[in-house]
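Q: My labmate handed me this sequence with no annotations at all. I'd like to see what the chain might look like in three dimensions before we decide whether it's worth expressing. Could you predict it?
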Amino acid sequence: MTQATPNIPTSNKQSQEVLRVGTMHWYHWLVVSLSIVLTLGAWYISKEQLAQKVEERFLRESDRVVALVKERMELYENALWGSVALYDASDNVSYDEWMTYSNSLHLDKTYPGINGIGVIYNVQPSDLEDYLARERGWRPEYKIHPQHSEPEYWPITYIEPAESNRKAIGLDMAFETNRYTAIKKARDTGEAQVTGPIVLVQDAKKTPGFLFYTPFYKNSRKPQTVEERREHIEGVIYAPFITYKLLQGTLAQSNRHVSLAIRDGDEILYDEHTGDSDIATDPNPLFKRKITMRMYGRTWVFDVWSNLSFRNTSSSAQPYMILIGGVVIDALLFGLFFFIARSNRLAIKYADKKTVELRARTEELEWSYSELAESQAQLSLSENRFELATRGTSDGLWDWNIVTDEIWYAQRYKTLLGFKEVEFPNVFSSFTSRLHPEDEADVLEVFRQHRAEDQSIDIDCRMEHKDGEYRWFRVRGVTEHDDKGKPVRMAGSIQDITDRKQAEQSLRDSAETIRAVLENAADAIITIDAHGGIETVNPAAERMFGYAALDIIGRDLDHLMPPQHQPEQDGYIQSCLKTGNAWALRVGRDVVGLHKDGMRIPLELSISEMVIDQKQKCTVIARDMTEHKEAEAKILELNASLESKVWERTAQLEKAQKELVKQARYAGMADIAAGILHNIGNVLNSTNVSATVVSDKINRLEVDSVAKLAKLFEDHGDDLASYLTQDPTGMKVTGFLATVAKQLTQSRDDLQKEIESVRNNVEHIRMIVVSQQKHARYRGVHEEIDVKDMLDDALKMAIESYDQNEIQVIKQFEDFPPVYLDRHKLLQVLLNLFQNARHALRDSDQQDMRLDISLEKVNDHRIRITVSDNGMGIPQESLPRLFESGYTTKPEGTGFGLHSAANAAKEMGGSLTAHSDGPGRGATFVLEIAITKDQKEAAA
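A: Here is what I predict for the chain of 940 residues:
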């Protein structure tokens, strides 16, 4: 059949023109690019403006809430000062006058949140009898309570309304610190004051509250000084407040979008963040703010959070709508350019065909439009039907017409699965196709039974989210039947319960982990019930004591202890069960256990309390210490051997020292020998300290941990690889090995340092002897040294570790490069000075012993070292002879230390001087020595 062809020009020139115009040019790409940039810019500006407005709104809301509280407190303050004015205007206010005045205030209407208003008089002990006689004249039952040790009384005399505050009448404010402190502060300042957080005696709920005081004075005037105010104080007007009632009367919760908590120091006055208030608390608030405010002598901290109402009213999709709209426009614009280009290229060839198709399409569109209008009418009906339901629930609703097999999914239903409206077809297969393969059969069977047997649907199943993840949903539904009982309609909802399922799985995993830990623990773990009987034991306990679990469950723990140790363990268990106080037993105690075969087992026992389902229990953890005790014995044996050798060597050195002194005196060299031995004795003290440190560190080596690890490897020798890679306990061995290795490496490094110190000390002894023997024939050997390091080394040798905890050492060292000096002569002088300072400090009565050491450069060829202490001091008559050979101020001294030090200073081209203001006023020694800059100059 031939179709009519429209009269369209189709010349080659026109075709080429159409093709040229339809090609995508650079300006088309420029327009698209600029449109994208404008879209992103508009989205970013809109998002930032929205965020700024939301934050500014929160700041206004929080300022308004705090201002309301401050305004309300100022209102109450005005009421209290008004009552003070009543007392200032009258010489004596009677109870009837006070009651008339307080009733005229209409507290419940004018001052909502106030608990009452009253008068507290200041009563000195000398006026107590007259005060009680006056008050009991019209109310015989009146008394001041409770008793206290303060030198004055502040009893509540009047308070209205009296009935609700009856327990407060006669209550003495001096009995409790917060009340008493605030009332004295109001008296001394003459200003309104509030107390710290207290519990009012009239508050049955025992919630936080406070008291508000305003003072009034005798003669109706406010004194100008603190002393006058204390002397003329007559009393205070006060108001008790229960904080939550105060804030209920202050804050209109229906108009607030923030929640509030108020703290005074570390104590909570009011808290809406706990979820117990009417405020819809946001567990993850958009904004938090902390406002600190001085409140009548106290510092109140306001923690303001945005709540769910704030979140709901602050959310806006405007930026994202702008972004989405811009992207859509950009896509349409690009599509338009591309379509125009492509259409124009094909326009000539397909012009006739497109005309015919266009006419057919027009008819189809007209038909589709009529269908669309009908569909829109049906859609409008459906939307009206479920609008209220979908608006009031967070679940995803669905409605299935069984007769026509038409189904409707609410937008929330599709959103829960990650889809937009148009992405999720309204067909039943949209639901079934997203079911997890393992759940599909069960869910469809439930739907079948629901239709056939009129049962309600309530089933948990997994459905595939748009992102490919399977999430857990609770599917519920009910059926509507016609007059003949035939199901015609089914409706229900889905609820995302993934978080609940994950929490349940987490609990199961935790229980499984705990079970694995108990079963694989190397220590015995035993639980004791409230009656002292064994309730559970782990496999390690069965292995340790040789009993099967069923043989000892229900028995007392005594069954696992020798008879002589049973009373002590009974006391621990009873202390845990009766008092719940097992903190003292959490640290392991050494006890003895009893194996089934009668063998005694050394144990380290720890006991702790726990409460499960409101039932008190005790957990006993027993560790087998057999290998530890054996290793400990070996260490003690090694330690004893090492100490024996150290003391033996020390005795030999001391013997040699005495022999040298004797020989030196015989040879006429007493001066040189005494100097040598004095310096050797100083170094020997440091050597003994290092030996003690080595012994202590050997005792602390992780030998028992390595032994346990070896035992663990021995127990799993057959399956060691799988145990280390698959078993939960075995997989921790690598981390444990790393920890032990780190500790052993640290201990090795520390021991090496101490051993190196011993070596250095021995080398120093040798060099001292050699230096003293040859000093008459040779000049000292100069080496490049860092004087600061030398000072630190000498300090360590001269002052033991326990002295460093008692003596405060103050160092002031200038920075300059290393210099060439005679190392051992300098060390000889420093050791003498530091040892003498140590003795002077230890022999003094100073509580804060102090040693000051300074290092400074005098010039390019000279340095100065100053050593000062606040110890015994030096008598003035001893200073001229201080450096003479054989002269000493100490009963056990030889008089050769400072003499040899002064000689060594001279040999280094310097001097050693001393100064003291007298006994008990410390001493200062100044060492100046010549320095050289290089080896060549030192050798010259």
